[in-house]
């Protein structure tokens, strides 16, 4: 049919350019087709139906558990139905809500608490929470923590996971917000928590990427090796962020979008910026030489540009550690998460298209 499989994402197919551009995203037997020309979309559906018996669901409203509500100036994506089903399955529909998914004073450990006799319930819950992070970056750090204990979870790990359910109960419809018009400019925030894992003393990497004002990717992950200093942990997090930014640039180019300015990466570590801008290897940096060369290459080519930001404005901090409810809410609001069902935020308007 003339589509080309993209390299950054093998599930994405594109063809044409300008007003005739079309993108097709497939997952097993579910397909999303996007174009500004409805005639081209109809033509693709006819050709697909000639080869397969397809069911046309019309405008995108529901896809793999994602609920899409659209207006002329904005699109909201949430997993409210999925979240409510999760709460109902776990028996937390009538639970008392909390306003943060984690407790700052408590770090989970693999040897703390009594081991569960049956870990199936815990594994199922963590698996469902992982899928919920598709639209809920606010629970990414907590879910990353729970994933460390899938082999031998304890009752304390299960209690911590139940707290996340109570947090979800507070706003099950919270999700991502995308303005329909936005500058073609990538911005990234990254941070690390040095030696955060009490069992292995490995650090936590967290980053979030914005396209204009819209949050489009994020990650909270334990680093593969132990860092000997906070500067090293920050620099490894910078390298991971630079790789993600490069992937996003490749993906945008497949969609016909080409940022004119280098991607802005914001970090609160002056030492990490100094390491990346200093061409001389020192005793404390020679063992991270590969990451050093990667970031230096991106800087030299003008792919990325580093900026220092105050720790209080480091949005990725929510992906590396636990916070008290007030601080946590501040970060969530800056990430642009939006609860379409909250009357205080305007609720649903009559012109919104929504499924639930």
The share of residues in extended strands comes to 15-25%
- From the alpha carbons, calculate the radius of gyration and give it in angstroms: 22 Å
Order of helices and strands: EEEEHEEEHHHHEEEEHEHHEHE
Helix content: 25-40%
What summary fits the major beta sheet?
A: 5 strands, antiparallel
- Tell me how many strands there are: 14
CATH topology of the largest domain: Nucleotidyltransferase, domain 5
Q: What is the topology?
A:
Layout: E1 4-5, E2 12-15, E3 22-27, E4 30-35, H1 38-51, E5 62-63, E6 66-70, E7 74-78, H2 80-90, H3 120-132, H4 140-146, H5 155-170, E8 174-179, E9 186-193, E10 204-211, E11 214-222, H6 230-254, E12 263-267, H7 270-277, H8 289-301, E13 304-308, H9 325-335, E14 338-339
Describe the structure.
This protein has 356 residues and is α+β, with helices and mostly antiparallel strands. The protein has 3 domains: 4-58, no CATH class; 78-175, no CATH class; 182-316, Ribonuclease H-like superfamily/Ribonuclease H (Nucleotidyltransferase, domain 5, 2-Layer Sandwich), CATH 3.30.420.10. Helices cover 33% and strands 21% of the residues. It contains 9 helices and 14 strands. The chain has helices at residues 38-51, 80-90, 120-132, 140-146, 155-170, 230-254, 270-277, 289-301, 325-335, and strands spanning 4-5, 12-15, 22-27, 30-35, 62-63, 66-70, 74-78, 174-179, 186-193, 204-211, 214-222, 263-267, 304-308, 338-339. Helix 6 crosses helix 7 (270-277) and helix 6 crosses helix 8. The longest helix is centred in the last third of the chain and has 25 residues, at 230-254. The relative contact order is 0.14.
